[in-house]
Structures are given as structure tokens and as C-alpha cells.
Specification:
- The chain has helices spanning 43-54, 90-93, and strands at residues 2-8, 16-18, 29-31, 34-41, 58-60, 67-75, 99-105.
- By secondary structure, it is α+β, with helices and mostly antiparallel strands.
- The protein has one domain (2-105).
Length: 123
């Protein structure tokens, strides 16, 4: 399946390390045509959160452990105003964190439910 790998750029991450983070990031926030991810989160949480906006699954391939201070603003793709956005596209904005999105193909586990039967239960 086509995926995007979240990887480090040459020179490494440009994010501040933090002692702790959230189990679920408090992001994204939306301001018209701009999406902003903020708060302490892990690289894995960032990749999982970006999947919704990247159009493909985003796989964490950074090898980074721990939590980082994230402040990432990018144009909301697909919105009527994304052509007029002052925010950069996701692929450019992510570089400010010392990261990049690399398109590739990988095996992904997918759960397919092809039938559900309702069995009666006693009250």
C-alpha cells in the first residue's frame, strides 16, 4: 500500500525534547484554511495524527523516543481556500521540525469485516 514515512532530515530533529507528553494530543486546531498541531507528543503520535490529513497512512520511521514540543502549522488541503492559504503545505511545513514525509510502499495490516451476524440473546 502507498504510505508516507515520517523520517529525519539530515541534521536531525529540530524539536525541543520534553519530559512528558499526552496520551492523546490536543491537536489539531483549525483557523480557517490552516491546521495547527501543538503540544507535547511523540513522533509516533504525530505520525498517527497526520494520517488523517496526509491522504495516506503516515508511518513513524524516525526512531525517536520520548516526547517533543510540536508546533506545526500547514494548509488544510482540499478546502476551498487552500489555494489562498498563507500556511505552507504539510510536506514543506514538516521540514521546520527536522522531519520529512517520504512516499513509499509498505505492507500494512488491514482488518476487513465482510459480515456481521446478530445472534439473539436472552434478557
Amino acid at each position: 500500500m502507498s504510505v508516507l514515512r515520517l523520517e529525519l532530515v539530515a541534521g536531525g530533529p529540530k524539536m525541543q525534547t520534553l519530559e512528558s507528553g499526552y496520551a492523546a494530543p490536543n491537536s489539531p486546531m483549525s483557523d480557517n484554511d490552516t491546521l495547527r498541531f501543538t503540544g507535547p507528543m511523540s513522533a509516533h503520535q504525530l505520525a498517527a495524527s497526520l494520517t488523517r490529513y496526509a491522504g495516506k497512512p503516515v508511518i513513524d520511521a524516525t526512531g525517536l523516543d520520548g516526547f517533543f514540543k510540536i508546533d506545526l502549522a500547514f494548509a488544510a488541503e482540499g478546502s476551498m481556500s487552500s489555494m489562498e492559504s498563507t500556511a505552507p503545505p504539510l510536506s514543506d511545513a514538516i521540514k521546520a521540525l527536522g522531519l520529512k514525509l517520504t512516499p513509499t510502499k509498505e505492507d500494512i495490516k488491514i482488518l476487513v469485516i465482510d459480515q456481521v451476524n446478530k445472534e439473539p440473546t436472552e434478557n
